[in-house]
Amino acid sequence: MSDRLDDIYDDHILDHFESPYHKGHLPCPSCAHSERNPICGDQLTLELQIADGKVQQAFFDGKGCAISQAAASMLCEHVEGRAVEELRNMPAKQMLDILNVPLTPSRQKCGLLGFKVLKTMLYSLDEPPAEPAK
Amino acid sequence: MSDRLDDIYDDHILDHFESPYHKGHLPCPSCAHSERNPICGDQLTLELQIADGKVQQAFFDGKGCAISQAAASMLCEHVEGRAVEELRNMPAKQMLDILNVPLTPSRQKCGLLGFKVLKTMLYSLDEPPAEPAK
Amino acid sequence: MSATVRDVPITAAAIRGEFPLLTNTAGGDRPLIYLDTGATAQKPQAVIDKITECYEHFNANVHRGVHPLHERITAELEASRKKIAAFLNTRPLDELDLLDDVSEIIFTSGTTMGINLVAQSWGRQFLKPGDEILLNPLEHHANIVPWQMIAAATGAKIVWCPLTADGRFDLDQFDKLLSRRTKMVAVTAMSNVLGTLPPVGEIVRRAHAVGAKVLIDAAQSAPHAPIDVQAWDADFAVFSGHKLYGPTGIGVLYGKLELLDEMGPFLGGGNMIDEVFDDHSTYKRPPFKFEAGTLPIAEAIALGTAIDCVQAWGWDVIHRQEQALLEACHERLEVIPGVTIYGPSVAHKGAIVSFTVEGIPAHDLGTSLAQRGIAVRASHHCAKPLHKCLGVDATTRASFAAYNTLAEVDALAEAIVNTQQMFFRRRG
Amino acid sequence: MSATVRDVPITAAAIRGEFPLLTNTAGGDRPLIYLDTGATAQKPQAVIDKITECYEHFNANVHRGVHPLHERITAELEASRKKIAAFLNTRPLDELDLLDDVSEIIFTSGTTMGINLVAQSWGRQFLKPGDEILLNPLEHHANIVPWQMIAAATGAKIVWCPLTADGRFDLDQFDKLLSRRTKMVAVTAMSNVLGTLPPVGEIVRRAHAVGAKVLIDAAQSAPHAPIDVQAWDADFAVFSGHKLYGPTGIGVLYGKLELLDEMGPFLGGGNMIDEVFDDHSTYKRPPFKFEAGTLPIAEAIALGTAIDCVQAWGWDVIHRQEQALLEACHERLEVIPGVTIYGPSVAHKGAIVSFTVEGIPAHDLGTSLAQRGIAVRASHHCAKPLHKCLGVDATTRASFAAYNTLAEVDALAEAIVNTQQMFFRRRG
Ligand SMILES: Cc1ncc(COP(=O)(O)O)c(C=O)c1O
Ligand SMILES: Cc1ncc(COP(=O)(O)O)c(C=O)c1O
Questions:
Q1: Which entry of D54, D161, D382, D389 is annotated as an active-site residue?
Q2: Does the domain formed by C314-427 have CATH 3.90.1150.10?
Q3: Which chain B residue lies closest to C375 (C-alpha atoms)?
Q4: Which residue blocks in chain B are alpha helix, DSSP H?
Q5: What is the pLDDT of residue D29?
Q6: Is A104 touching C (CB cutoff 8 A)?
């Protein structure tokens, strides 16, 4: 195990933390979901605007550590324009790659909080698309 | 700690175990009390005939290991003719001396079961003598 | 290290060599003959070393910090949890559950705690007056008293399923007693007195058919045979670390996730909460919901090492040695006049032999065997209802592990005969 | 051996020398700066060695056998219980109680378990709808959630006693809230966040005046100051081994004998029963009534060794070193712009310093300190109600023991400043 954590607060992370992308709320989101990292208290809400099987817009709100908030900001950037189906198959590893800083297991939980919110939301979307003509 | 336990089943112990003194019941005892050694299941009842502040007769009944039963038998022999006050002050060590075999702590519990029954009985006798004219 | 993969199967003698206490001479100059594994197992060097390593190299509290020390201890603990899950053959979890760190493996302080947890958390929620909890006389007090307590609290009733005459679980009687009122069947996978091996999978199948849940007490079976919660389809299963060659102070409760998710918490405190309000709290998902406070951390980690050891030895070698010991013990003891062995024949039991010797109280026999260097247990073995069935107050129990030797069985038989000679020396 | 009597007082440096982990370099080449004793203490060599000794030389189950191995392990366990009783200054017991092996010292798996035991066993028996349980925001979740759970089960009510503005226990508010309805006051002897030291003796005196019982949570205070249950006149007191330089998996519940005798059992199982009938059981007296199942045996014995260590070091030396660390830490941190320290002044607290740094989330500060070799804890510290009072989600906590050094305090201050420089490097 290494303690080379020095690079985790690189400019990219601090940029997203200090000037987050799409922090705030959508006027009428297709879906929204909140979670907390019960260990450190990070809070996060994600709101998606979905149309044509694609995420059109993504906003987040929350508070907590730089890693969880920066990751949420990057995630919003990442998901916009992507197909729901593609995102449903997105592995956790990809989220960590987007973050691109060396996170210890406990800080990975922060980095993956937004991702977890996204996944929970996408899985619970399962039913509506499966029964389109109600 | 030694494992020189070889002497614990000496003839004296086996005599009392096989031919106990005053095993049985008194017709109308002054007091009686039962206890169990919850670890090994030894059971013991002691019955005393008390008059003039002295134990006139002592009987025991019970089942269990040779040590607990032989000790009860020896205790009955020992207490007869003795003053209640004297017995109340009898220390546990004296009971172990009467047994006169090297008991490990767990077997001392067996050896002291009758003694414990005796003590409990004598302490609960406290009140009647204190209020004689009722 | 004991826990590496071997090409050649290990021998029982090599297993024995891993246990420092068995090569020490305890309590004098006689070698220790330890026939009390049923009470607690001896510990292999690897387990002892792991505890030392925890405390000397990465001691910290878990799930709470970000220092490499914190990361390391948490990783070790969670690795042990995964090992245990594999050891019990739990099913794979889905992605979201994994992201939530959900697990069906709950660390407890032991079997007793695990059963009390289920009795209280599941019982208080799901038992109603008139519901039945089905027990049988093979059960250890740990699998009786918690059910009596929750029955008294909820109005549920304890129903006892009698054994066969030779001390086996009676499936016919079981069928007769099972009904829609049966809500819980709590059954041991191996009797700690008779060695009886109830047909766990079949019991679960029949209990599920009437809608009952089943808790398997694997405390006694765990060191002797695999636990397969999927094959058994067990709802709950419990065991203790200290009987599985691991440390004291640690145990495991397995529960099906959907049941654990439904149940309320048992102990309240740190790490199990999601949010704490003035007058109530909300809770995390399993396992954390049931892991209030600081865990037995070093113990949980070293239990993982114990499981490594068992898997390195292999069930085959373990079983073969234990079976040889069991057969030898029956053969040697059955021919001693005055000896009665309780329970089923060798074909139907694990490596435990409980017996009485006519005219010698169990406790005195225990002492006499101790004088001869042999550690057994002489008591009701926390199974009073069973001893009532057997019609004796206490028995003397020899319980074996793969580290025991046939010479030790011989020594036991000889010591019994010697005790008879000593006890009856003044008789004709 | 550390636990022998010395003529000359030991120095803090010598105390430090007894802790192998503090001389190891964990997680890389930097020396470990361990400022997280509040979460769990490091272990002296004597404690680690005692665990090894148990497993290598006299491992067996306790209270159950007659072999020298059984006698030895039981004697070691009971000797530890007596040490703990002396450490807590419990009163002497009478002859009959001693013959019964009665004790007011109950081994638990930790503080959390001890509080749950009292909440459930005492609470279910003595709490009625309308009764009040008095808490205050200094309490750890372990001393909140169990009371919420038993309040919900019995209809009793939680009442919160507010703190003074500087985070001390407010005796005036306490007096106002105390009434005949108050049945239990559960209070910490030392806050695990603010270091606050509530006036425990005075709280007990006032609570007893209205007929309430008092439970003292000594988990955080135990390593720093004596527990005197007679001077406090505490009804119950609890602490954990792992915070008192002992192993994980073990804790202690002290209770007044007359209360323990009145209470029903908590966990059911082996060793706590007197007799087991088909539908109910009868129980032994304390401590055994509350010690169901196999105890954390090695852990309980090694806790005795930890207490030997503390007594060999002496409270004077411990207190003087911790006070020096505390004062230095306040001095160094107070002058750093943006740092806020929470809670009372140094004169009114123990060796814990919780703080925030403006603009740096606690979790990130924790990571940055970890990068610099410093282990602290950054979270709500299992005290959410307190953090709500403080108006922050999380704080970073440095907690000290006598094994820490002034150089480590300097390193902490320097690391905070370095973190600010790193975090704010792009600002003007
Ligand atoms: C004040 C206080 N009470 C209770 C606890 C809980 O102790 P444990 O986790 O050992 O049960 C702690 C420690 O986390 C504490 O600091
Ligand atoms: C079958 C069985 N169940 C339960 C227990 C209780 O286990 P523990 O004392 O480790 O809680 C034991 C061991 O004593 C046992 O043999």
A1: D382
A2: yes
A3: B3
A4: 11-18, 66-79, 84-88, 92-99, 105-111, 113-124, 127-130
A5: 63
A6: yes
Check if D364 contacts B (Cβ < 8 Å).
no
Domain ranges for chain B = 3-121
Average pLDDT, chain B: 88
Do residues D252 and D114 touch, judged by C-beta distance below 8 A? yes
With CB atoms and an 8 Å threshold, state whether C36 touches D60.
Answer: yes
Domain ranges of chain C: 55-311, 314-427
Averaged pLDDT, C104-119: 98
Q: Does residue D382 carry a catalytic annotation?
A: yes
State the CB neighbour count (10 A cutoff) for residue A85. Answer: 11
Contact C86, C103 (CB under 8 A): no
d(CA B3, CA D72): 11
* Cα C227 to middle of ligand 1, angstroms: 34
Say what the pLDDT of residue D25 is.
60
C-beta atoms of B41 and C393 within 8 A: yes
- Tell whether A10 is within 8 A of chain D (Cβ): no
Task: Give the position of tokens 């979740």.
Answer: D141
Q: How many CB atoms lie within 10 A of CB D161?
A: 22
- Residue B41: which pLDDT band, with cuts at 50, 70 and 90? confident
pLDDT tens column, D342-371: 999 999 999 999 999 999 999 999 999 999
- Cβ distance D142 to C270 less than 8 Å, yes or no, reads yes
8 A C-beta contact, residue C37 and residue C400:
yes
Count the neighbouring beta carbons within 10 Å of the beta carbon of residue B40.
Answer: 27
What pTM, to 2 d.p., does this model score? 0.96
- pLDDT, residue C24, reads 73
User: Which CATH number is D55-311 given?
Assistant: 3.40.640.10
Q: Chain D within 8 Å of A110 (Cβ-Cβ)?
A: yes
Out of D362, D367, D422, the one facing A107 most closely (by C-beta) is D367
Q: Token digits for A133? A: 């003509």
The atom of ligand 2 lying closest to the CA of D294 is 9
C88, C229 contact by CB (below 8 A): yes
Q: Select from D40, D56, D60 the Cβ nearest to the Cβ of C59.
A: D40
Residue C374 banded pLDDT, cuts 50, 70, 90: very high
Shortest distance, CA D26 to any CA of chain A (angstroms): 9
- Please determine, for residue C7, whether its predicted confidence score (pLDDT) is greater than 80: no
Taking alpha carbons only, the member of D8, D1, D46, D10 closest to residue D317 is D10
CA-based nearest distance D117→chain B, Å: 23
Q: Given pLDDT bands bounded at 50, 70 and 90, which one contains residue C411?
A: very high
DSSP-assigned letter for residue C247: -
Q: For residue range C211-234, list pLDDT tens digits in order.
A: 999 999 999 999 999 999 999 999
Contacts of residue D383, defined as CB under 8 A and 6 or more positions apart, other chains included, come to: D137, D138, D139, D140, D141, D191, D192, D193
* Chain D residues touching A3 at Cβ < 8 A: 27-28, 30, 370-371, 373
Q: How far apart are CA D51 and CA C59, in angstroms?
A: 15
Residue C70 sits at the chain A interface (C-beta within 8 Å): yes
Residues D373, D392: contact at Cβ < 8 Å? no
C132-135, strands of its sheet edge to edge: C105-108, C251-255, C236-240, C213-217, C182-188, C132-135, C157-160
Read off the tokens for B23. 């095993």
Q: Is D322 helix (H, G, I), strand (E, B) or coil?
A: helix
Examine the pLDDT at C4 and tell me if it is beyond 70. no
Please state which CATH number belongs to domain A3-121: 3.90.1010.10
Residues with CB under 6 A from ligand 2: C 110-112, 140, 142-143, 188, 192, 217, 219-220, 240, 242, 382; D 270, 293-294
Question: Which residues, other chains included, contact A122 with Cβ-Cβ below 8 Å and sequence gap of 6+?
Answer: A84, A87, A88
Verify whether the Cβ–Cβ distance D65 to C375 is below 8 Å: yes
